[in-house]
Amino acid sequence: MNMGKVVGTVVATRKEPSMEGLRLMWVRHLNEQGEETGGQVVAVDAVGAGPGEVVLVASGSSARQTEATDKRPCDAVIMAIVDHWEVGDREVYRKDQEA
Amino acid sequence: MNMGKVVGTVVATRKEPSMEGLRLMWVRHLNEQGEETGGQVVAVDAVGAGPGEVVLVASGSSARQTEATDKRPCDAVIMAIVDHWEVGDREVYRKDQEA
Amino acid sequence: MNMGKVVGTVVATRKEPSMEGLRLMWVRHLNEQGEETGGQVVAVDAVGAGPGEVVLVASGSSARQTEATDKRPCDAVIMAIVDHWEVGDREVYRKDQEA
Amino acid sequence: MNMGKVVGTVVATRKEPSMEGLRLMWVRHLNEQGEETGGQVVAVDAVGAGPGEVVLVASGSSARQTEATDKRPCDAVIMAIVDHWEVGDREVYRKDQEA
Amino acid sequence: MNMGKVVGTVVATRKEPSMEGLRLMWVRHLNEQGEETGGQVVAVDAVGAGPGEVVLVASGSSARQTEATDKRPCDAVIMAIVDHWEVGDREVYRKDQEA
Prior knowledge:
Number of strands of chain A: 8
Structural class of chain A: mainly beta
Oligomer: homopentamer
Helix content of chain A: under 10%
Number of domains of chain A: 1
Order of helices and strands of chain A: EEEEEEEEH
Strand content of chain A: over 45%
CATH superfamily of chain A: EutN/Ccml
Largest sheet of chain A: 5 strands, mixed, barrel
Number of helices of chain A: 1
């Protein structure tokens, strides 16, 4: 999965019918130091993520393994909201510290 | 999904029979600031997109999850036409402003 | 799909039995301006393409959606020979001009 | 598969229900010389890997071919812990030397 | 498929049970000029390839379309040993010349 930060929302009225009702979010990729890598993706939100939250994005066919995205033309899904992560002995990110 | 702008059309007479009747479009990738990233792809159009429009492209096996592309050798499909998007509090793109 | 130019052929005698009889081609990737991007791939030819021709290549599981490649360990297939393409009002490529 | 080194752990409470109970690890990619390539991924651990261990990561739909990850929105799985590897006549990595 | 050269072997004792008995090889990617591109992958060998041989590697779900790799968490497989290839009128590689 890619780590990422939700930075925006996308609205598309004309689309594949199966995509109706899904929320589309801009996600910027983060590395294990919490730095932006320069990559980004538009992902379907399957877990109620909001702008500013740090999330995990699954890509490819794995992006269709949620109830929200099953059999839909979706290649990226937010499938988890991250609470915290550690690298070595150092805590790099904790959600509470963001609030 | 990748955000992109439709910049051209491709015509191929000799092709896999299952690809007959599908419209092929050149799409340049955009980042969340609306800037071109330097990437591009040829995608099947599943939603009636036209040159100049900003669209979402699904890739890989997810590109076959539309009626137009089911079971075809297609790895990229335009599955939505974008109306507008926001990053933080800023509106980066709105379709009406393009017209 | 990736746009590409067929630049060579590959011969492999010892291989997965299911790959017998398939033609393998070197394809250099092209961008929408017809310039080489520096990328390349070895693809199975499903449409009778020859050296010098400009083609579309489907990748991943979509590369198995042709009669020639079904259920085979093939992740790239030439599934169309390109006649011409336009970007904006400009014709970038036309096959007849190559002949 | 990608070679990588486990460098950290990720905790996510709010997630797709099917992801419950899976351990998420930060993995930095290594090349055949044992050097970091600059890439990284968050992978599900299917083999009991721990921080500091060198592992193999399978990506895409192949990441779902373990009991732990079957039918889940997971696109990267640690499916082996590496004991040692050789390039040419040189042993580049051996687990015992790390301990 | 990616062209590559087998440069080493990997041993992993603790792994997904379905991976037992498979040989893991380090493969460096080559471009159509026979030059290393800087990329590399660990692939399962399905055709009896050895160090120094030039091979084709199939990736993604296509890597599971061999008897050796079916339904296993394997995303790269060596599915052919290359005898020779030509680019334009020039022979770039021939196996006999390597021996």
